Structure prediction request, 328 residues.
Amino acid sequence: MKQINLRKFFAVEWLLAIGILGTINVGNANTDVSGATVAPIRPNRVLLLDVALAGKRVVAVGERGVVLGSDDNGQTWTATRAPVTRTLTAVTFFDDKVGIAVGHGGSVLRTEDAGKTWVQIKVKEIGTDSVLGLTRLGGKEVIAYGAFGMYLHSDDAGKTWTRPHILSKSASFDRHIYKVVKAGSALVLVAENGSLGRSTDNGMTYQPVASEYPGSYFGAVTAKDGAVIIFGMRGTVYRSTDSGVKWKKIPLETKIGFNNGIMLADGTLILVGNSGLVAVSYDNGISFSLTKTKAGRGLAQVVAISKDELLSVGEAGVGMVEPEAWRK
Prediction:
């Protein structure tokens, strides 16, 4: 079976072409299913696109509004009834209780009980466009971003949102934004078609940054030494040591796309991508070693549930990344 490109899954033209899970800007995006019954869900047979920790609880989100929670490090999972039926693309938690999930059709959800129940936050500034990512800036401050340059800001843990003009009042940004990360005192934004931006005012405005790569960047991660690593299509990885002003390409022997990445507590960087690709760096992103998971299915994100266990989500649902694929 053909591998699903998990990041292209987000793009409007790809969704329209394959007709999977609805489309952006079409129909009633925020379908209320509060009275629906949750059907049994096999956690290894559902498309999941992000995972986060709420204290010791693991919460994963994905297709058709699926939310899965585990209180035993991924051994067993419980499906939670979400108030939308659109695909959820990202989830984050401020503490062990309060969190946000976002997704297609302008979906914004909020929980105050570690993901066991969710309420929908209506944000008129989004309309029915798809929200593709979340970045916590500190305290209760968080930004959300996505299709056609959508960029939203909240300073009350997602209860209310505003939509700043991130370029200027006279200019618009219409590229899909996939990730924003902290880079010292700046923020770095990565988007489709090689678009990069840099903010020095906590994300209220961004200045375009020159990029030599015309393909899309799908993710970014900040290393322990402050370097920023961005990555995307065709195994493309770049690194910056000056908070995103200049970039150096990191050559890798792969053309498989990367979707997401994290930094572990000891500073190890893990990038994950299609076909089970895993790239590991022990030197703050200067170099990476490449491996693949045994299952070889596309990975959307990983999270460390202990110093020895790395849980993954992707096109094969939830799973564990073999220690030999990421540990020294």
Notes: The helical segments are 12-18. The longest strand covers residues 131-138.
